[in-house]
Write a structure and sequence with these properties.
It is a single chain. The chain has 256 residues and is of the alpha/beta class. The chain has helices at 45-52, 75-82, 100-111, 116-129, 145-156, 175-192, 203-209, 229-235, 239-246, and strands at 5-16, 19-30, 34-39, 60-65, 68-69, 85-88, 163-167, 195-199, 212-217, 222-227. A 6-stranded mixed sheet has the order 6-7-8-3-9-10, sandwiched between helices. Strands 2-1-4-5 form a 4-stranded antiparallel sheet, covered by helices on one side. Helix 4 crosses helix 5 and helix 8 (229-235) crosses helix 9. The protein starts with a strand and ends in a 10-residue tail after the last helix. The model is unreliable at 252-256 (pLDDT under 50).
């Protein structure tokens, strides 16, 4: 199926001070796909995600969200672009003193003029989408790790973004809970048509959810490969890529 790009990354370079993370990287994310960012330690996976959601400013290059340059936008124009993005961080980052309902309502309180009843109705709908109906009045400390991750996804959906960016959503979860989270992501992708950009190193999740992956290489500071994960596993002649997908140690710097 031919899709149109919702994100275009063009000649992106990232640095932490003098340290080069990746250099002159370009790729596209198609509308409605589940796109996964992979790479060994230090390759810049989370850094790439944080550039896409506007937390970091590129050292060079541009990132286009539906044809608009997020790095170059300012003021109301930048806020309008950011409204198209929702983010879930590795820890979930829920406010511990607030109920799940209150956590989800928070963004609507900040960025909309909706009355309380409308905000709460929307929040309940988001929690139902991630199968947390009935947990609206629970605090984050009162639910499991997997439920926290799903609640964080519900909060990321509060303003109906077109793109959801998830950083290591399966981190710290047991295999069964991780598989349940994968199914939540797939269900949201198929029913809502949301585009997902996900950082993860969990191979089972990658094979289950990813339409395509991009592999960043800490050695070259470039893209090592891009494509459907099973095709890269089965057809790549790059030993590093083969070892990544087969969980084989290589001893090379930047390898998994």
């Amino acid at each position: 199926m031919v899709r149109d790009p919702i994100i275009r990354v063009e000649h992106l370079t990232a640095r932490y001070g003098p340290r080069l993370i990746f250099d002159d990287v370009s790729f596209e994310v198609q509308r409605g796909e589940v796109f996964v960012i992979l790479g060994g330690s230090g390759s810049g996976k989370s850094t790439m995600l944080k550039h896409i959601i506007g937390l970091y400013t590129p050292a060079a290059g541009r990132i286009w969200i539906e044809g608009e340059d997020i790095a170059g936008a300012v003021g109301a124009e930048r806020l309008a672009i950011l409204r198209k993005l929702g983010a879930m961080f590795q820890s979930g980052a829920l406010f511990g003193s607030m109920t799940l309902l209150e956590n989800i309502c928070l963004a609507m309180e900040e960025f909309t003029d909706l009355p309380t009843e409308a905000r709460e109705a929307i929040a309940r709908t988001k929690l139902k989408l991630v199968q947390l109906e009935g947990f609206e009045d629970f605090l984050p400390s009162e639910i499991s790790g997997g439920m926290k991750k799903r609640a964080a996804i519900a909060r990321a959906m509060a303003l109906d973004p077109r793109i959801l960016c998830l950083d290591e959503p399966s981190a710290g979860l047991d295999p069964i809970t991780s598989a349940e989270l994968d199914q939540t992501i797939l269900r949201l992708s198929r029913t809502l048509g949301v585009t997902f950009v996900i950082v993860t190193h969990e191979l089972d999740s990658i094979y289950t959810i990813a339409d395509r992956v991009i592999m960043l290489d800490a050695r070259t500071k470039k893209i090592a490969a891009i494509g459907p994960p099973k095709e890269l596993r089965d057809r790549s002649d790059d030993p590093w890529i083969q070892s990544f997908f087969r969980r084989e140690a290589t001893g090379a710097e930047g390898a998994p």
